[in-house]
Specification:
150 residues, globular
């Protein structure tokens, strides 16, 4: 079997680690810039869901909290719901490192099944994290959802 792939993205945000942590884990804030609510109690071993905000609360991504060290590190598994036990989930790590008045947020999405999955996350994470940066720094997301741009 081929080695699993990973995607790493780094963004610098004028903020404090606590604000970044809250923006990643608060359902209302994730809904504002991500278009989905991240729902969990964020305790190690707990389940988390990436739920639609259209009122249906349908989870489009599910996983388990692997590591939770507020406000500097969050690690979760990442899978499509209903994929069964045969599919191995990927893993997403959020590392939040303060430096003066800015924060370096590094997102590492690893254990990707192949090039198609890597291409999908390579198109998604930059859009989501750009929207997060704008949301944190201005109090509002970008005027258009960046992931819908052709």
């Amino acid at each position: 079997m081929a080695d699993k792939l990973e995607f790493v993205y780094v963004v610098y945000i004028e903020s404090a680690p606590e604000k970044i942590w809250t923006a990643l884990t608060d359902p209302g804030q994730t809904a504002a810039y991500w278009g989905h609510s991240n729902v969990s109690d964020w305790q190690v071993g707990s389940q988390w869901e990436h739920q639609r905000t259209d009122g249906s609360r349908v989870a489009e991504v599910v996983g388990t909290v692997v590591e939770s060290a507020p406000p500097t590190r969050l690690v979760t598994t990442w899978a499509e719901p209903g994929t069964g036990q045969e599919a191995e989930p990927s893993r997403v790590t959020f590392d939040i490192a303060p430096y003066g008045e800015i924060v370096r947020l590094t997102v590492t999405h690893q254990d990707l099944a192949g090039e198609a999955e890597r291409d999908a996350v390579a198109g998604g994470w930059p859009a989501v994290l750009s929207n997060l940066k704008t949301f944190i720094e201005t109090g509002r997301p970008l005027p258009q959802e960046p992931w819908t741009m052709p």
